[in-house]
Protein: AraC family transcriptional regulator
Amino acid sequence: MPENTPSGAGRLPHGFRMEMHAHPEGQLVFAAAGALATTTERGTWVAPANRLTWTPPGFQHAHRFYAETDVRLVAIPVDRCAELPPHPSVFAVSPLLREVLLALTDRPESRPGASDRLRAVLVDELIETPEQSLHLPEPADDRLRTVTDLLHADPGRPATLAELGRAAGASERTLSRLFHTELGMSFHRWRTVLRIHHGLIHLSNGRSVTETAIACGWSNPTSFIEAFTEVVGQTPGRYASLAGFRYPKSI
Structure:
């Protein structure tokens, strides 16, 4: 599937990347199976198999896909984009949204205007759907970036903020303030979301809940399940079953 493809469907292997690019139209990306991460200058959004990503027109972005991904791409005409957020977002996929996405990408247009009508339904449903963003913002401050780079390299790292601060040449108090002012969340919350991102990837690759919990830095599966459910909105076991689902009509 070419990087500049605005619409379509396909199966992509684990680790497949679409490098930084932009579209003149808006774009929705849905992983009917698997998971994807969308990265922009504002950070990374992860969409497991029960969510989709929205990227506005002209917004530079890259994608990476995890596990064998049944990916669906839908272009949204510019004249409908103003009804959706002006920034990248993640939305929950209701049963109706899922069926519309699959219909738009599974078969050719049966009658003139049918695809436009389905896209109108898609936009109308998204307007009524609250954002459920698994957004991980990235810092501009060099000291804070040193800390986040260390955690990206090893999400399970048990270091405290004070210990990480010594590597960054900044105090715990300074870094704590920067997490709130630059990233809009606490150090603990940012690291939790980072670990959940990696947890989604491990689960999509078939690792067990216990293996994933340990790999991502939790001391026991129960703590991981509680954190995962709070952030993602479903248990790891439920997510894993959805991520591995294969639709019979997939291309």
